[in-house]
Design brief:
It contains 15 helices and 13 strands. It has helices at about 15-35, 50-55, 80-90, 90-105, 120-125, 140-155, 175-180, 200-205, 235-245, 265-275, 295-300, 315-320, 330-335, 350-360, 370-380; strands spanning about 5-10, 35-40, 60-65, 105-115, 130-135, 190, 215, 250-255, 280-285, 325, 340-345, 365, 395. Helix 1 (about 15-35) packs parallel to helix 2 and helix 6 (about 140-155) crosses helix 7 (about 175-180). The longest helix is centred in the first third of the chain and has 18 residues, at about 15-35. It is of the alpha/beta class and about 400 residues long.
Length: about 400
């Protein structure tokens, strides 16, 4: 039997929204429990942003990339869910070897995979890792829905759109049903949420259910504002500009590491900000018309073209006294923690939502894809219960009462 500290291996499927909370979990296991960890990533997402995050990890948390796999036979417009699940499935032989090697050198006590890496449980089992946990970087509401999905798939005939909005003819539908069935193979489900923000569903999931693993809300796991070096050019520029603004006077505009607007919406947002006269800090990315969501998702925070070229003519000059525009990426937790920030126009990705809650910044919801519409409705419900039937409405919520300021 191996000696030394307990070691946990974590598989992060593509997306900074998966990697960031897993990295924070690894750091907490190290600082609070004396464990070591290895973060395993996919070669398809070796972006500069990801490399910077992995380089910032403490010595107790290592990282290893899986070798590339060929996905060229998949359709060019394949959904994100299909791409991530297929890349994971094709990486299983390499992952099995990697886990077996780690077992030779470390006291490997557990394997953790996020929701799109459930097939990796096969590699963990084949390499002899006994404890296998699912990490859900979304909220408890989404988890409760996905846990119910296999039953819905079996009991509801025809299209879900006959009942409500979801569409089971979407190519990613069977991927999600397959993954949801495997959720129950986990020894435990770890969720990046906490009781205060979802008390009702937390209470339900706290109760044991036959055949369902225990659910543990372990959030909020967010990247700390000091994780980016102070000398980082985007951090320095944002810090210097925010330091010159009055308290709570700036609205921060960002649509996450993969979010981008169509050109027309981007244009209208720019005009709206200009006409409002409001101070703003806007993270601008190339519009989504220039490619697919997959392009943005797999190259997080890196626009391939100059995004400023898509703004209204003269916009930069006319707003230079009230706004700061940064290309592709900004130190979000630092911006939200700054006293000059008074609001957040957000896509309602769960990482961004948690960061805004932790720092007590009110949010204006502009959901784009994935579970973001559900998040927006959940957050707006205390003020606007009528929005339960309109997941696309943008609404302001005041998060300053959350006790994590």
């Amino acid at each position: 039997m191996k000696t030394g500290p307990p070691h946990v291996t974590m598989l992060a499927t593509p997306g900074m929204d998966h990697l960031i909370p897993l990295a924070e979990l690894a750091k907490r296991l190290a600082s609070r429990h004396g464990a070591t960890a290895t973060l395993i990533t996919f070669a398809s997402t070796a972006s500069a942003t990801q490399r910077a995050l992995l380089a910032s990890l403490p010595p107790s948390v290592a990282s290893r990339p899986l070798p590339p796999v060929d996905l060229s036979d998949l359709p060019r417009d394949a959904d994100i869910e299909t791409l991530m699940s297929e890349e994971c499935a094709r990486s299983l032989p390499a992952l099995t070897r990697m886990l077996s090697e780690l077992r030779e050198t470390a006291r490997l006590v557990a394997f953790v995979a996020d929701q799109f890496g459930m097939d990796a449980f096969d590699a963990a089992r084949d390499s002899g890792v006994r404890t296998r946990c699912l990490f859900v970087p979304m909220n408890l509401h989404v988890l409760s829905l996905v846990l119910r999905l296999p039953d819905l798939a079996a009991s509801v005939s025809g299209e879900f759109r006959d009942l409500a909005e979801p569409d089971r003819s979407n190519p990613s539908y069977m991927v999600m049903v397959h993954l949801a069935k495997r959720y129950r193979e986990a020894d435990a489900i770890l969720v990046n949420s906490f009781h205060a923000v979802e008390p009702e569903v937390a209470q339900v999931l706290r109760q044991p259910e036959p055949g369902r693993p225990p659910v543990y809300p372990i959030g909020p796991l967010i990247r700390q504002s000091g994780a980016i070096p102070p000398s980082s050019p985007p951090r320095a520029a944002c810090q210097e500009w925010l330091d010159r603004q009055p308290a709570r006077s700036v609205i921060f505009v960002s649509f996450g590491s993969a979010g981008a607007l169509p050109k027309e919406q981007m244009h209208q947002l720019a005009l709206g900000l200009e006409l409002s006269g409001q101070r703003f800090l806007w993270v601008v990315r190339s519009p989504s018309d220039e490619g697919t969501l997959c392009d943005n998702y797999y190259n997080a925070a890196e626009s391939n073209k100059d995004p400023f070229a898509y703004l209204p003519e003269g916009f930069l000059e006319r707003t230079k006294d009230v706004g700061l525009l940064v290309q592709s990426w900004a130190p979000q937790t630092q911006v939200l923690a700054h006293m000059a920030t008074g609001g957040f126009l957000t896509h309602c990705g769960w990482n961004s939502t948690l960061e805004s809650l932790v720092h007590g910044v009110p949010m204006l919801a502009w959901p784009l894809f994935a579970e973001q519409r559900l998040n927006a409705v959940m957050l707006a419900w205390p003020l606007f219960p009528e929005l339960s039937n309109d997941a696309t409405t943008c609404s302001a919520i005041d998060a300053t009462s959350v006790p994590y300021k």
